[in-house]
Amino acid sequence: MESTYQTAEELAAALRAGEVTSVELTDEAIARIERDDEAINAICVPDFDRARDAARRADQARARGEQRPLLGIPVTVKESYNIAGLPTTWGIPEYRDFVPSEDAVQVSRIKAAGAVVLGKTNVPLGLQDIQSFNEIYGTTNNPWDHTRTAGGSSGGSAAALACGFGALSIGSDIAGSLRTPAHFCGVYSHKPTLGLVANRGMVPPTAPALPSDLDLAVVGPMARTARDLTLLLDVMAGPDPLTLGVAYDLRLPAARHERLGDFRVLVLDEHPLIATGSAVREGVDRVAAALVDGGARVERHSRLLPDLAEAARLYTQLLLSGTRARFPIEALEELRARVAALPADDQSLSAARLRAVVFSHSDWMEANSGRELHRHGWRQLFAEFDAVVCPITPTPAFAHDHTANLLERHIDIEGAEYPYLDQIVWAGLATMPGLPATAIPTGLSSEGLPVGVQLIGPMFEDRTPLRLAELLEEAIGGFQAPK
User: Fold this and answer.
1) Which residues are in coiled coils (predicted)?
2) Pairwise CA distance, residues 9 & 327, whole Å
3) 3-state secondary structure of 411
4) How far apart are CA 226 and CA 438, in angstroms?
5) Which residues are catalytic?
């Protein structure tokens, strides 16, 4: 059977029926990677020998009557996850030889569920970019147009899925790192509610793999269908067994609705701080039209929506101050002087980034208090709506730009230039309050590039945007293989 673009659900059914073996699926995936990945560079650390061994064990387990959700299914893993025996570098040259001795908790979970890990996927330097390139592993190209980025920081995973290199992948997200690559490559991803999925072992090289409650950052699933996202999230979700898992078991609420016509959806396509490109606006409109055709209640405005400009500034403050805490920077006194010279009325995101880098603890506490007010605003909104549909970034995938200083880059939107990092404000809309968000493809732009949107849902009600994603996949179509 030709399995390249079959879903994880379809592969599991074929394995159960004896129509194919895991060894056959694994060999086919490896052959495709060896044939096609030179042009894409998605798989930066192949692990083919161990994958074949895992596939043989999966076939033996199935012959014994074992049933596990991912038994025998080939998958990939973002390079930033620890896998015993493989390098974890985060693309940082000085750590090119660092090899952890223990799997990350999510790698352990997918292996326990029977997954066959083909290898690790490429990332940007330190996971700190909307593209995926680094000195160690090079550049990952977009499967739809090799002159463009596949996104970041889970760009290798999204490109691998679009090319048929395994049925599933796992990534991470703090600034759209699951959602942006999915949008750029035409696949699905889900940013879980903050704290829903244990993250131990998804740490910078040499850092101890300890349980921690990260601010903003999450780990989550990527796939080629919405149903496969749910399948993988069910494997990944739950507290760390070393901490909250000692006392708690997870039980996610069911989706609020099962029929498209029962959903109440707020649709957004305008942001006060950045323009929305026509291709993305058309993608949002395609989803809105499908919702209306399906009988859903669709609104374009709501007085309950938290202030988007304030949300973007709070997100910027929390993101940049947290990044500075994790990656100490030099020349703080010079930065403080630059902050002091900023006009008091400069409320641009560029000014917010600069101020946040020198935040005090009390500054952070004030921003966190603002976040709590926004969380309450979202709770009120989700009493009236079930989901929010909005862009992930303002444009489809853009051309590779390897300018070293991100602050010197710009993003072109309909002929107007904006600071490069301003494009993450849409991703931050869900990240800042910790809400779940599912990225879905909506079709192709006039240039033939994938365009996605995100479905933001209520906190810890991840099954609601995931179910809406399934229904929209039926209504407007889903993944398309690159031509």
Assistant:
1) none
2) 40
3) strand
4) 9
5) 78, 153, 177
Q: pLDDT tens-digit profile of 327-348?
A: 556 677 888 888 999 999 999 9
Which residues, in sequence order, are bridge partners of residue 154? Answer: none
Q: CA nearest 441: which of 41, 143, 33? A: 143
Kindly state the average pLDDT of the residues 271-283: 98
pLDDT in tens, 213-224: 999 999 999 999
Nearest to 105 by CA among 17, 210, 227: 210
Q: Cis peptide before 157, with omega less than 30 degrees from 0?
A: no
Which residue segments constitute the domains of the chain, with CATH numbers given?
8-256 (3.90.1300.10)
User: Which amino acid is residue 116, in one-letter code?
Assistant: V
Give 259's contacts (C-beta < 8 A, 6+ positions apart). 295, 471
pTM: 0.98
Residue-wise pLDDT tens digits, 130-151: 999 999 999 999 999 999 999 9
Residue 91 predicted with pLDDT over 90: yes
Alpha-carbon span 315 to 318, nearest angstrom: 5
